[in-house]
Design brief:
Blueprint lengths: L10 H4 L21 E3 L6 H16 L6 H10 L4 E6 L2 E11 L18 E9 L8 H14 L6 E6 L4 H5 L4 E5 L10 E6 L1 H10 L2
Parallel strand pairs: 4-5
Antiparallel strand pairs: 1-2, 2-3, 3-4, 5-7, 6-7
Helix pairs in contact: 2-3, 4-6
The structure holds coenzyme A (COA).
Length: about 210
């Protein structure tokens, strides 16, 4: 797969505000959209890692995906990612991949299984200056909508620390128990969510 390929979202979801119309007789100005939601590419990896560095490394000493892993997954499965850009700057992101077993295992930390039907949500983070403004929630709902349009995806799964379980439950994720994956001394809960509701809406809307 070309690392140059981009996966724009459907028009109504990709841009919240239209660009200012061009004034007659004036040279076109290339303004960046106020808000843009799109799948990430390997070229976005440095911006993703910059957010991760502050969100995870400065707090936990580790992070879900290091720079080369970000590039790896954004090359293998960019369609399972989403970034929120404000005037061209990345403010929040989600990176996923596919998994093919009922539960997450230590192996799922490094593998993308293209034949799988479960979207493994590996990392979600909002730039620290934009937290607590509802951005994480908006991005998650948009991402779930985007996943629901992918016929291969029947389920979504993630792991998180205890404190974030209620946050993910608001998106329909169900706690399935302790996760088999540990990072150093950190332990996590595993949550799952069926994507059938999104899929049936897709079928009923005929899109
Ligand atoms: C977790 C995160 C993605 C949430 O994004 P956000 O834009 O700050 O969240 P929102 O403003 O949409 O908040 C939604 C709700 O989640 C709650 N919430 C947000 N972050 C939380 C946290 N770290 N612990 C517990 N609850 C949290 C909020 O209190 C809010 O609840 P409310 O509506 O009852 O007030 C963001 O805080 C972040 O990037 N954190 C650092 C990285 C991280 O921990 N990522 C998740 C890894 S599993």
């Amino acid at each position: 797969m070309s690392t140059q390929s981009t996966y724009p979202l459907e028009p109504e979801a990709s841009q919240l505000q239209p660009e200012t119309p061009k004034a007659p007789g004036r040279q076109r100005r290339h303004t960046l959209p106020a808000n843009e939601f799109r799948c990430l590419t390997p070229e976005d990896a440095a911006s993703v890692f910059e957010i991760e560095r502050e969100a995870f490394i400065s707090v936990l000493g580790i992070c879900p995906l290091y720079l080369e892993e970000i590039k790896h997954f954004l090359t293998l499965c960019p369609e399972l990612s989403m970034g929120w850009f404000q005037e061209g700057r990345l403010v929040a992101f989600i990176i996923g991949s596919l998994w093919d077993q009922e539960r997450l295992t230590q192996e799922s930390m490094t593998l993308h299984r293209p034949g799988g039907h479960t979207a493994h949500l590996r990392a979600l983070a909002v730039h620290h200056t934009f937290r607590g403004q509802g951005k994480g929630s908006i991005l998650m709902w948009r991402f779930l909508h985007h996943l629901g349009r992918q016929p291969a995806v029947r389920r979504a799964v993630l792991m998180c620390e205890d404190a974030l379980v209620p946050f993910y439950q608001t998106f329909g994720f169900r706690l399935v128990g302790p996760c088999a994956i540990t990072l150093g001394s950190l332990t996590f809960k595993e949550l799952q969510r069926s994507m059938w509701d999104h899929a049936s809406r897709r079928r009923n809307s005929g899109s």
